[in-house]
Amino acid sequence: MNRLALTVVAAGVALTSLGAAAQFQKPEDAIKYRQSVMTVMGNHLGRVAAMVQGRVPFDAKTAADNAAIVVMMSKLPWVAFGDGTDKGMPTRARPEIWKEPAKFKDLENKMMADAEKFDAAAKTGNLDNIKAALGTLGRACKSCHDDFRNEKYSN
Amino acid sequence: MNRLALTVVAAGVALTSLGAAAQFQKPEDAIKYRQSVMTVMGNHLGRVAAMVQGRVPFDAKTAADNAAIVVMMSKLPWVAFGDGTDKGMPTRARPEIWKEPAKFKDLENKMMADAEKFDAAAKTGNLDNIKAALGTLGRACKSCHDDFRNEKYSN
Questions:
Q1: Cα(A140)–Cα(A142) distance, rounded to whole angstroms?
Q2: What is the DSSP letter of B52?
Q3: Closest to B11 (Cβ–Cβ): which among A3, A17, A141?
Q4: How far is CA B48 from the centre of its chain?
Q5: B50/A1 CB distance under 8 A
Q6: Cβ B18–A47 below 8 Å, yes or no?
Q7: Per residue in A16-74, pLDDT tens?
Q8: What is the spatial distance between Cα A146 and Cα A139, in angstroms, rounded to a whole number?
């Protein structure tokens, strides 16, 4: 291991989650990663929702900046739902994710497409556009959560 | 609450973390968010490190895509270190973050600047450039973790 590698390891970067053949070495690495992505995505979606609902003043640039984060996050969690990642640490992922992969994939694609549209709407700077696109994206989130996410965490 | 709001709440988006005056309603919302950002950042930094170390084949586009995520994440966690977020759920954040804010801010700015340089290096597609910039960024991570992050989580 060279000096750079040691430096990065010392920095606490999650190198253990990276095998040569897989991005996650252990199921819990994948679960923690996908939950983290969802947390970040939900937070930034929520910041735009707060503007849409009038709880914070609308600012077009802030909305666009948040939407850019949402669309980037929307692409990330899927690689972390690999076989064997149904348990390993507390998760709300339902077994149906691995029993109905085609249906899960459809909803994943719908969410990513709706996130792209949300990002495009945010770039227009028009609050009505943003509100409509956020509603569509929110429904895409909900439809997948309804079918594939439990209310409670289990190991 | 209008229909859109209800849809978004039903989708499980973390709206509770968004007050009118603060992005996080409870300390645990801030802690969970900043930990999630760090997890995502570390994962994508690690994916580039795996290329630099030769554990996975170098692919310039993949490196650049990962670096773009790293630089976006590098800007996010700081707002979640507000007063009162030193406890609330298990955290490795040391009290020194709030006792030495100027020093913390300096290291925060250094890390963001080094992440920008890492992103720029990744865009060149040159592995040597990427390796050098990753080393610099890794040292910025480490210097902040050394001073402001505990080894173990505490409540």
A1: 5
A2: H
A3: A141
A4: 16
A5: no
A6: yes
A7: 333 333 579 899 999 999 999 999 999 999 999 999 999 999 999 999 999 999 999 99
A8: 10
With CB atoms and an 8 Å threshold, state whether A138 touches B8: yes
Chain B residue whose CA is closest to A25: B43
Using CB atoms, pick whichever of B1, B52, B145 lies closest to residue A4: B52
Which residue, among B11, B62, B35, has the nearest Cα to A79 in the 3D structure?
B62
E strand or H helix that includes residue A154: strand A149-154
Give, to the nearest 10 degrees, the angle between helix A27-52 and helix A127-148: 150
Beta bridge partners of A71: none
How many CB atoms neighbour CB A1 within 10 A? 8
Q: Which residue is listed with tokens 């983290």?
A: A36
Do residues A115 and A44 lie in contact, with contact meaning Cβ atoms separated by under 8 Å?
A: no
- The domains found in chain A, sorted by start residue, are 25-154 (1.20.120.10)
Q: What are phi and psi of A57, to 5 degrees?
A: -60, 145
Q: At CA A47, angle to CA B32 and CA B91, rounded to 5?
A: 10
For residue A18, give the nearest of B17, B46, B139 by CB distance.
B46
Counting Cβ atoms within 10 Å, is residue A102 exposed (0-12), middle (13-18) or buried (19+)?
exposed
- Contact assignment for A49 to B15 by CB distance below 8 Å: yes
Task: Please state the pTM of the whole predicted model.
Answer: 0.88
Q: How many residues does chain B have?
A: 155
For A59-73, the DSSP string reads -HHHHHHHHHHHHHH
Q: Look at A18 and B47 and tell me if their CB atoms are within 8 Å.
A: yes
Mean pLDDT rounded to a whole number for chain B: 89
Residue of chain A whose alpha carbon sits nearest to that of B42: A13
